[in-house]
Design a protein that fits this description.
The chain contains 8 helices and 2 strands. By secondary structure, it is mainly α. It has a two-stranded antiparallel ribbon. Strand 1 and strand 2 form a beta hairpin.
Amino acid sequence: MYNLGLINHLYGYMIVLMGTDIISIYIFLQFFENLPISLDESAIMDGCTYFGVFFKILFPLLKPAIVTSLVLKGVGVYNEYYMSNLYLQDKNLKTISTALYTFTGPYGNQYNYICAGVLITIIPIFILFLIFQEQVYSGMASGAVKG
C-alpha cells in the first residue's frame, strides 16, 4: 500500500475493503443452489439467451441475497477499526470507529461521549434495516415455480 501511494487516501482504503468479503460469495452460492433449475430451462425453451435468463429471471430473484450481503458488508465496514486506523493515518480522514476513539485519553475515558456517539452511529444502520427487513427475511424464490 505504501509503494502504491495508497496510504492516507480513501481509494486505497476502499480497494482493501472490496476484496475481503467471502461471506457474500457464500450467501449467493447458497441462494443459487436453492433456485429450481426449471426456471432456467423454461426460459431457454422460450427462446431467452443466457444473459437474458440471468438479468430477466435470476437477477430479480436475487434481491434478498443482495440486500442481506449489503447489510452484512455495510455493518462490517461501518464498524471497522483496524484497517481504517492503519491506512487512514491523516487526521482529516476518519471513520466513525476511529472518531469514537478520540474520546479516550491518558487520564480516562469519556464514557458519556462514547455512549452518545455509539447511539448516534447505530441510527443509520437501524433505519436501513427497517427499510430492507422485508427483503432480508423473505424468500422470494419460493413460489416462483408451481409443482
